[in-house]
């Protein structure tokens, strides 16, 4: 069993086919087929059930998968440990973060951090909040940045509130007024994303508690895809403030307040192991995170300071 075979096995399992795995691994499709065949030959069993439109793992493949993932984690940790011993390195920092935070919040922070610590090796791994928590608890990351992360083994620091903001394009007919009521919103075209995520659950719960059914015209996989759909005027969406702050500030998108419903608040949290002190590199990064969080945009920048009558 070779490392390339293990990586290829996991890529095929994740993407459901040889062609897509080849694209992700940047190798030829015959190379992928050859590695899987060699791995199956060494184990004496088939790992994938052929014949359908999408390859499925056999019982042997499902058994192998967690071990294969652990092998790659061990290799990454071993490489990290060796790199930290290199005399030219000033240290290392391993960060786990939610995908939206990686996309919209961390780049500017990392740019400032890199300028101050050019020799520090920084690695960033993305995942859902529960995956971020697991990476920190398992010692695979020095700190995690996500939402509502609480666990007896970790210390949680709340950076700021990152609410979900009802957002629309300024020329969309339903986005012209700065406020609305939930009963009116029920008929508006809405764009939801990442079914089953905490954002999806929060948004669905807003309507369910009121006995209403949202008019979902589109469901997409990611926040960025939803934002692009909103920007094209295909509907309105409940989007994280960190994802739309620049667009709200510039006026490319508009925020709409729901006057008869509680705001959809979410905490942006940083976590690290409770009984393990932060390294100097991690402490420096935490200070930059706190500084960046203090310069957050107000939720409704397009609203005037003068209070308007309710709808």
Quick summary:
Helices cover 44% and strands 20% of the residues. It has helices at residues 3-15, 18-25, 29-43, 59-84, 99-104, 106-116, 129-137, 182-185, 198-209, 223-231, 241-250, 280-294, and strands at residues 48-49, 56-57, 92-98, 121-127, 143-147, 154-161, 164-168, 179-180, 190-193, 216-220, 236-240, 254-255, 257-258, 267-273.
Structure write-up:
With 311 residues, this protein is α/β, with parallel strands linked by helices. The chain has three domains: 74 residues, Arc Repressor Mutant, subunit A, CATH 1.10.10.10; 104 residues, Periplasmic binding protein-like II (D-Maltodextrin-Binding Protein, domain 2, 3-Layer(aba) Sandwich), CATH 3.40.190; 95 residues, D-Maltodextrin-Binding Protein, domain 2 (3-Layer(aba) Sandwich). Helices cover 44% and strands 20% of the residues. The protein has twelve helices and 14 strands. It has a five-stranded mixed sheet with strand order 4-3-5-14-6, sandwiched between helices. Strand 1 and strand 2 form a beta hairpin. The longest helix has 26 residues. The C terminus is likely disordered.
